[in-house]
Structures are given as structure tokens and as C-alpha cells.
Amino acid sequence: MYSEPLDCRTRQTMSTGLGCKPDTSHQFKDIERLAQDMRLLATMPEVYDVHFIVGKDKECVGGVKAILAARSRVFFNMLFGGQSLRTTESGTPKKSNKKERNFAFLKRESQVKTEQKAPAQKCLTIPIEDFEVDEFAHLMEFLHCGRCVLDSRCIVGILAGADFFAVEDLHTAVVKFVDKCITVRNVCTFFCDAEKYIQLKSIKALVPKLLEFTATHAHEILGLASFRNLPQHVVRLIMSRKDLNATEWEKFTAVVSWGHAYSNIHNVSLQSAVEPLIDCITFYKIPTMQLMQEVRKRNVVPDHVIMKALAYQADPMSVKLNKAKPINDRPANQPKSPRKTESSSQACIDIKSISENHQEEVVDVKLDHLTKG
Predict the structure, then answer these.
(1) Residue 321 burial (CB count, 10 A)
(2) Which of 248, 280, 312 is the last residue of a domain?
(3) Are residues 223 and 268 in the same domain?
(4) Can you give the pTM of this predicted structure?
(5) What is the mean pLDDT of each run of 10 residues along the chain (373 residues)?
(6) Range of the domain at 162
(7) Domain end residue (candidates: 280, 315, 339)
(8) Count of C-beta atoms within a 10 Å radius of residue 205
């Protein structure tokens, strides 16, 4: 026969009548107070037992190994070598006394003799060369305190840090935030920041979103000064999109402006700078008068390209047009990666060589650890 479940009060009454002790336990949580205490702890350099030397400027960021190991499996493997339990000589886990484990922190300092104090432990130093100090500091704040301010100025680096160090809750929050903070003003900056971390999966997933946003707002973005700072392969990825919301004349003027900036930085001629981008522009869609008076006068487009565009305008059946192909500006002496990539990010992947140098006191950390996961 089916019977209705008993509520807590009924079960307590029945257990009391049967001579059993009533359940008087209650679980209490104060997560907010814990977070406040952890934030206070993070402001005390005296408790740091690991220092990270971050970025090109080699600024120091401190941390607590136990907290970092508990919050990130990558930090756990980095700081403790993947050992989850300390074992005795017999191989069985070493268990501490329950009373000592629960109340050891209540011992007064006056009860410990000076000569019995353990020597001070050396602080571990870990260089972090691939992250900027602002990005890494946000990651450290979240791991120690459970919260951090997401800033669009370094959001790509925070996303990369959360991905590389396997901080899943922060990674989820940053992915949602970055989709909302992409604007016309910062999309080119995001492209440049993404170049540093393009080997990470989350950054590879971000690049198509940036390309799609750029294609939609191309008529605004192509004229920005920040557009001229983009790498050559990124400009080509943008210009070769069929859904680019810009006229061919706007594309040509943007390429020329970018070429001037690129030639000044790399000390090359304007013609050499824009040559890989010429086939991304459909010149026959530019009016004839502009082709002859404006485009040809810039002296950056070969004459045969202009003649072919004019011939197509006169008789489309007489000319066979070539489609633009994606390029990779990898140096000639650098071997190609055997792994195929998606077309949206094919031209901008530059994977660093894998290297790891582990010493007793100094550990050199590279982004290559992510590829091992």
C-alpha cells in the first residue's frame, strides 16, 4: 500500500517516542564572510609562499600555494608536482591525529619554544612570461578571493588565463561577458590581444566572433586608427570575407592607410605592404572614373589588375577573375604545422615551440602546458 512521505516534524516525534534522539543539527554557511576574510588574507604579503614574476617588466605577484592548488588543478600540478597525498614509508596515506588536525591552529605562540621553531621555508619563484601583469593579477584575485572585476581592457588576457589555468567558473563568466563588451572601438585591440594567446581553445573560439562583428560594422571599423595596427594576416582575413559590410572603394582606402602604417613600422615599401591584399579587393566594382583617377594615381595596384577590371566592366565574359586565397605570414624558414585548422583562424595561428624548464627553486612556466591537457 502506498503511504505519504513523513515530514520532518512527524519523523522527529516518532523517533522521540521510540527512544531515539531527535535530529538537532543545523548546517550554517557564511560564504560572504569567508570571501571577506580571504580578501584580507590576500593583502598580507607575509603569508605569501610563492611569487610569480610576470610579463616583460618582471613585476612580482604573490600568492598562497595551498589556495592556488585547491582552486586550480594546473596550479596544483605546478606547485606540488601532482602528488595528492603524502605517504609513509609503507606506502599508506599518512593520517594526522584528529585532535591535532582540528585544534593545532589554536596553540599559542608562547607555548612553542624558540629553539623548536622550524626554519623559515624558502619562497618559490615562478616566472610567468606569457601573461601581462594586469591579466594575471585579476586571475590571482579571483583564485584567492572568489571575485574580481572584469575589465574590457584586459578581458582577452583574463579569458586566456582562465582557460590555461583551468579555472572553469571564471572562464564561463568571462565568455558571457566578452560577448557583450565587443564594440567598434575595442574590436581591433581584441584582435591584437588574441594574437598572443591564439594557441588556446577559448581564444580560437573568440576569433570568429571578432571577425563576424568586424564584418557587420566594417564601414565604421575600417576607418579607425586602431585598424592600422592589425597584423597583415588579420587584415586579409577581414578583407576576404564575402559578408563584409563595406564598398570596394572603402576596402581599398583602408588597405592603403593600413599599408602606410605597416611600411613605416617594418621599413618596407607601400607596394610590398599591400601586395598580399590586392586580390581581396574586387576592383571591377569600383566605378571606372575612380579606377583611372584615384586607384591608378596611388601607384600601388599593378596596371594589369586595373586593365583586367576595366575589361570586365566592358565585357564580363571576356575576363576570368581569380578568387582571393588566405595567406599565412609565417617566416619562410619556419616549418608549417601538420595539424589543419579552421579557415577562420588558419592565417593567424602561430604556435610557440614547446619548452619546459623545471628547477628546484625556480619554475619556468609557458603556455605550452595547455596543449598537454
Answers:
(1) 12
(2) 280
(3) yes
(4) 0.68
(5) 50 53 70 70 77 91 90 92 43 39 33 42 84 93 88 93 94 93 95 94 96 96 95 96 95 96 94 94 94 91 92 85 53 42 35 32 37 39
(6) 33-80+122-181
(7) 280
(8) 15
